[in-house]
Amino acid sequence: MGHVHVLSDELVNRIAAGEVIERPASVVKELVENSLDAGSRMIIVDLEAGGRRLVRVADDGQGMGEDDALLALERHATSKLVRPEDLERIETLGFRGEALPSIAAVSRFELTTAFDPGAGGVRVVVEGGRIMAVNPVARPRGTSVSVGDLFFNVPARRKFLRSVETELRHITQGLEAAALSAPDVGFRLSHGSRVLLELPAAPDRLRRLQDLGGRRLAAPPRPFEERRGELSVEGLVAPGPGSGSPRLLVAVNGRPVKDRLLTAAVRRPLRGAGETLGGGWLVLWVELPHDAVDVNVHPAKAEVRFARSGAVFAAVEAAVRKGLRVLHGEVPVRRFGLMGPEHADVEGDARPAAPGAASLFHHPVYGQVEEPPASWGDRQALDVVAGLGHTEDKRPTSGARQQAADTPFGRLIGQYRASFLLLDSRDGLLIVDQHVAHERVLFDRFLERMERGQPVSQGLLEPRLVELTPSEAEGFAAARPVLQGMGVEADVFGETTARITALPPELDSQEGEELVREVLEKVTDLGPEACDSGRILHEELAAALACRAAIKVNHPLTREEQVHLLRDLAATRDPYRCPHGRPIVLTLRQEEMERRLGRQ
Ligand code: ADP
Ligand code: MG
Fold it and tell me: pLDDT tens digits for 304-339?
């Protein structure tokens, strides 16, 4: 008598359900995917008690005949794959043939469907995986699946369900993602008698996002894209109100995914940009040949694997950077209120200027700058500000506007409260945050040096001694080459004392000490092996350097220094955003000024 036996279908389906169906939102996701695969034009989702009591998804897709309806409930029954090669290029959302039997195994389930309404439809009732009834019904073409009492026979799972609000949030977010990937399909989601989403079929994604965001969008979504050979990334970015965190959605070949690689690629350029995105949206559609991506890596199909993940990562990151650039040409003027006198006072109190740093030209950074091109007042200058979205038809310019621009951004008016530079530009009044601007300039410079492997450093007259914690001291050996790559020479003597002997000329020894501590902290966090594996990114290090070395607010600058800074800023890769994603330039348009002053 052996002990090994093959599991019954009922058990197998319940086990599969454990992977595929985690909560009501997974049911909605699977059923909606089926409806989309069936070519539906309208999908209606009804819920009760956050989907625990009922999830019903009805569509007007192609429907099924009776035989197919019964077969669809069998495990590994699908119409979407035939040959093994098909698995290499999956173009449908479903392909595993698991969803219906899994859901039916853990709920009171009912499927009604009609393929040819003339021939009548069928209703199949299943309870906990057992077919209870199969009846003919009359119904229009399409399919409707009701899932009642989810997990009624899996008490352990049922316990893990969260509050109605939480489950509803998961469902809504999943449906929003599906809706953004299929703008031409209408969706309606209701909970009891309350309609949560009402999305008519839309001509394009932009319109769909507008319908979704509704009044929560602070400005219309702006499109951006990045194409690299067969790989394309299209996106929409829309700022929302407040300072919430933006919704990020990524779809790969029409499939919304939660992929760690992609999320990292999106987040990196986004770090800190939440400030301008507020509770807005950032949506990306990645398209690449079907055989360059493996969607069969996760039972719930939420993750994908790329044949060339580095290329995808780079393209997505570049796309997001573009998107942010597009967006903050349009920093909402509302934000001007933030910079009112009260706020400026707070800033004014913030930090006194570093002693001995009265002139920016004494700052070693400026000893090394080449002369900028001569004719900034002309076309070239205008190209730089094009990012701010100016249009060709301009209202008559005022006298001041006709004066020559002395910086790439426009004519410099001067410095405000030793912290902001004011400019008269074609787009209106520009306000530049001098600290962030300088940070941007330095970031580009440090990054370039690091990428070329040519750090610049200058010996300190007197070495700086830094007392380390034991764990910092332990990570020191691993961090040392990283520091060297940044232009920092340091060693440890005794048990826990580090000695900094050389720094990039832009940093004083206090800033150098802070930097060494920050790098050690990173190494402690990530583990010493991170240092060789390149997991500590040049960008991060350059940002840490730049942040330390940049001039602070409340630091008077001569006019010459101001012009110099602005010219340097214009020459950076992204003059409108600091490496952490904070905006650098704020625009107050003339029209807005006039409107607010009651002139229009
Ligand atoms: P998969 O989607 O992976 O094929 P499912 O278990 O989700 O597996 O569905 C099984 C099959 O049932 C599908 O391949 C499809 O042929 C059919 N089906 C499911 N839902 C619908 C629907 N809403 N409309 C038409 N056919 C459907
Ligand atoms: Mg399916």
Answer: 888 888 888 889 988 998 888 877 654 433 333 222
Q: Closest ligand 1 atom to the C-alpha of 142?
A: 24
Provide the strand spans (E) within 278-386. Answer: 281-287, 293-294, 305-306
Cβ of 100 less than 6 Å from ligand 1: yes
> DSSP class of residue 577?
B
Q: 32 C-alpha to center of ligand 1: Å?
A: 10
- The protein residue whose alpha carbon is closest to atom 20 in ligand 1 is 34
Whether 35 lines ligand 1, by a CB cut-off of 6 Å, is yes
| Short-list 134, 78, 145, CA closest to 112 | 145
Phi-psi domain of 528 (left: phi exceeds 0; alpha: psi -120 through 50; beta: other): alpha
CA of 115 to the centre of ligand 2 (A): 17
Q: How far is the CA of 341 from the centre of ligand 2 (A)?
A: 58
> What pTM was computed for the model?
0.59
Ligand nearest the Cα of residue 295 is 1
Residue 395 near residue 555 (C-beta atoms within 8 A): no
Distance CA 149, CA 412 (A): 68
pLDDT per residue as tens digits for the range 237-282? 988 776 667 788 999 999 999 887 788 888 877 775 555 677 789 9
Mean pLDDT of 583-599: 88
